[in-house]
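Reviewers of the previous submission asked for a worked example of the structure-prediction workflow described in the proposal, so we include one complete record here. The input consisted solely of the amino acid sequence. No template or homolog information was supplied to the procedure at any stage.
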Amino acid sequence: MPYTILVHVLNEDAVVGEVDELPDPHSQFIVLNSPRLRDGRDVTYFLPETTTAIYPWHRIHSIEILPQEGEESIVTFIRE
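From that input alone, the workflow returned the following structure tokens.
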């Protein structure tokens, strides 16, 4: 099951992409499929035909795991 993640790269815009499994803390890099900016535009420092990017851990500030479709639940409170 692929995970959609948001990678915060040092001194760059955050990049959204998919990974097949969550990254192992002992890895030296992370492989990101279908890299794009959060609004869906192409990443400026990649060629338009790029489908996979490899980021070394020392360039990553943090990673957010975005919710999958169907996982989001809206909790509302109704006051009667």
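Residues 3-65 form a domain with the SH3 type barrels. fold (CATH 2.30.30.100). We consider this example representative of the routine output the project will generate in years two and three.
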